[in-house]
Amino acid sequence: MTLHFNSTQRVRFIFFSGLILFFLFSNFTNAQTYKIKGVVYDSRTKESLIGVPIIVKNNQGRGVASDEKGDYTLTLPKGNYTLQIEYIGYEKKEIEISLSKDMRQEIELKQSAIGLKEIVVSGERADANVSSPQTGVERLEIEKINKLPVLLGERDIIKTIQLTPGVQGAGEGSSGFYVRGGSADQNMILLDNVPLYNASHLMGFFSTFNSDVLRDVTLYKGAMPSPYGERLASVLDVQQRNGDNQDYHVSGGIGLISSKLNVEGPIQKGKSSFLIGARRTYADAMARLSGAKDAQNAYLYFYDLNAKVHFSLSDKDQLSFSGYLGRDKMVLKDAAEINWGNMFGNLKWNRVINSKWNSGTSVFYNQYNYYFGMEIGMDMNGRAKIKDYGVRQEFIFQPNKNSLWKMGLSSTYHDIGPGDYELNAEQNNSLNLLHRYSSENAIYASNEIKLSDKLEIIYGLRLSAFMALGKGEFYNLDEENNVTDSVWYKGGKVVKTYVNLEPRLSAAYKLNKVSSVKAAYARTVQNMHLLTYAAQGTPFDRWTSSSNNIKPQVADQVSIGYFRNFSNNMFEFSVETYYKDMRNQIDYKDNANFQTYNAVETELLYGKGRAYGLELMFKKKLGRLTGWVGYTLSKSEKKIDGINEDKWYNAYQDRTHDLSIVGVYELNRKWTLSAAWVYYTGNAITYPSGKYQINGKDVMYYAERNGYRMPDYHRLDLGATCLLKKTSKFESELAFSLYNAYGRENAYMIRFRTNNDDTSKTSAYQYSLFRFVPSITWNFKF
């Protein structure tokens, strides 16, 4: 009998036949192989370890590395095996396994007693620079950060990431940063998965992060994975450590202007732990004690508090609560006061469902607020606040050793209070700006899959939905951005909804064992926008959200790069190029008023942007001398109707050249030396092109937006760490640093005014912050 099929039937037959063969093959494979799952952790602290290689001995080097949570999964046929674990700073270990069913095997590693000064925990495999399909990612090692020279003795992860290609500091005296041509507000900064709206202290001289309580720091600047979103340029994901659930420890540091203290230990030994870290500056108190006259009526300080408690409820359930509280205060008695700060709490539950499925659930509350008051000539004060309420659910599914799925959803409710102002309170003159409410939601899925020995990809999709909500007054504008009428919406009423698909794709093709080519594409969307005149940003900048008039910012980025390792992964080299197309970019019109105006949309203009560049990195990872050289060649521009005659103009963060050279040298077991040299092209800026007189007064004339440049910036920092004592129960060290070692007076700002001797001329005045800044800090742990 002969069967005859038309074309449609043939397609269906082939498809269903292939599907049946796939399931038959899958069932056959699953019947012959089993999974070994578990977690790798430190035997003393019980802290999970990242990037630990687990090798199947005498099996052609087959193995895996523990992930960012310390988890690992091996898939092997039935049989007897020996797992071999070698990890820097820990004793070598071998485990005999008889595999006849899916099983769980915890791996406990004991710290090596001799030969090591420090234990470096890294969130990546030794050859991840070549093998990982994730592009545009930087993972920072906390121990390496702690060896670099620092400003005023305070170690800072944000200052460290600014030394890597594609990341540029916002300027001296600022903790803001720019990533691949994006503005400072286009970076999502997360602490334990909670967003921070201002990650700086003392107007940017310090960052929010206390490095002593941190576990893992990862920056995504390229095709960020689909679980991340809500910002256009990058995600900085910072995770706090769990406390030691076996023993109590106290650590800290005492410096010239700041000190910190950290305490950790078990709540119930082996099952639960706590970690508390506190910092405070006291430069103003030291100045008053010295008798400085100008300091007697001034207060300038910050404090912050990190806390985390962790419970192992069972072999499958982990529960943790983390929190943060930080505050800055600047007071001049009988004149002015300003203060600002962050506060959040996050509850997270992780559960191992079975050998293939894991679940993570978290809820959080976050608040950022600021206050200012003045008593000079008038009694005036103002305050603003942002509150977030969020929930997140994620599932991790690993069907086999070559495939890893992440799926989840998130939802955040925003309450933005842009400002309440009082002028001469006794006269009851006040202005209360309308709150803006919104709901930001997303559902996502991503798959990291190894298609062959040469090709690995990560593909994913994120569906975001942003809803601008009442209660409040919303405005209709004409073509000139003037208000024509307004509509009042009740609380919870949907004013406008924006839905966006955000595809993500990243791939790595290994040319051989030591080199690869990577390519990536990502679309990102941003609905929270920062409005500021200050190029470097201040704590008092105004945040607003997408509305019926303000559209979400959208960016499409493509990148491609070549990656190469040398000398058994001792050296790394990479070159990566990118192009980013941005839409619905926001800039202010001339003489805009953001702070005390409800219809803020009338002060804004919209258009498009583009950023492109080339990034080079050469890194030495092992040996007594380690460090890197990073270089970025880039361009960032905007084109907005109504600005610069509707032509392309430089974004403020545009910098042609950016170069960093970093070195750390272990002189001996006692001394470690470090140095960092940075150079970059001055920021684009708007200077007056001329001046004219009105009623006898000089008025500056401004033509091209950002048509001039600040002077080029360069600086050398030096550092040294002296290990005073190290035993099993106590260790201490002295950390020395010299910021701006050759005393260059880099420009912080430049101001113009009429020359006193010749009124036909205009003089420029440059202001600088720092020349030589030495510091010394004593760090201890017991």
UniProtKB/TrEMBL annotation:
It comes from the Bacteria. It is a multi-pass membrane protein. Gene3D superfamilies: Carboxypeptidase-like, regulatory domain (2.60.40.1120), TonB-dependent receptor, beta-barrel domain (2.40.170.20), TonB-dependent receptor, plug domain (2.170.130.10). Pfam families: CarbopepD_reg_2, Plug. InterPro entries: Beta-barrel_TonB_sf (IPR036942), CarboxyPept-like_regulatory (IPR008969), Plug_dom (IPR012910), Plug_dom_sf (IPR037066), TonB-dep_rcpt-like (IPR039426). It is found in: Cell outer membrane. Residues 154-231 form the TonB-dependent receptor plug domain. Its main location: membrane. Keywords: Cell outer membrane, Membrane, Signal, Transmembrane, Transmembrane beta strand, Transport. Belongs to the TonB-dependent receptor family. PANTHER family: HEMOGLOBIN AND HEMOGLOBIN-HAPTOGLOBIN-BINDING PROTEIN 1-RELATED (PTHR30069:SF29), TONB-DEPENDENT OUTER MEMBRANE RECEPTOR (PTHR30069). This is Carboxypeptidase-like regulatory domain-containing protein. It comes from Dysgonomonas termitidis. The lineage of its organism: Bacteria, Pseudomonadati, Bacteroidota, Bacteroidia, Bacteroidales.
